[in-house]
Amino acid sequence: MLVEPDRTPYDLHFRLLGFPVRVHPWFWLGAVLLGANTLNLGVEILAIWVAVVFVSILVHELGHALAFRRFGSDADVVLYAFGGLAVPTHMIAGRWRRIAVSLAGPCAGFVLAGIVYGSNLGTEWGRAADGTAPNGRELWYFYRYLIWVNIVWGVFNLLPVFPLDGGQVSRELCGMRWGTRGKRISLKISFVVALAMVAYSIFCVLDDRGMGAGLVKELPWWIPPGSVYTAILFGLLAYESYQLLQRIEWTDTHWADDRTSYDR
Hints:
Layout: E1 12-16, E2 19-23, H1 25-34, H2 43-70, E3 75-80, E4 83-88, H3 95-123, H4 137-157, H5 165-178, H6 182-208, H7 228-258
Parallel strand pairs: 2-3
Antiparallel strand pairs: 1-2, 3-4
């Protein structure tokens, strides 16, 4: 899934912090679909949601890009449907460096959430201590979405599911521990965790629609509930991990038979 989309005449281009940024037109549609449930709050709240998704994913990918730059590689930032990419000019050598690059994206989002939260403590520009909206509902939703998107999506991104950032870290750590078997083991972990997320998401959806005991409402605030979107997303990621695992196992079992006697 980590494939840069084709260029179109409708791409938005600009530079930020010295990095070329390209926004594919499908990005805007993806953001609207993700926030479709906000439409009942008004078109302006949906527009705020789209703006928050744009800022949050851009900050996430700039975190990756800055880490690439720190280790000697430039990068292009691409935002496309349901996500983004920081495409380096060349690969980074060293497992710990690659792990740092993978973690830089979620960490950038956590820092942004911290800045938003900290700035609100002193000024209450988005939300008052009693939960009210002192400067209007638009700023209240802007504040709320900035915190939610950067924390919740950052946590999801750290799950050991390929090709999410956590999956990239898992692959590097498994490679350090088990050598050539590491990639296979990391994909098995990715497959199991992705399936668990599908099951959790389906449970949350059914429970929220009155088909359960209402347990989702009892979850702590810091545990994000699953949704139809997360069920579909992690279902696709589970399938991709399974396909990659099958490809690796086929190569491992067939490679020796494909070699000539002179290559052995």
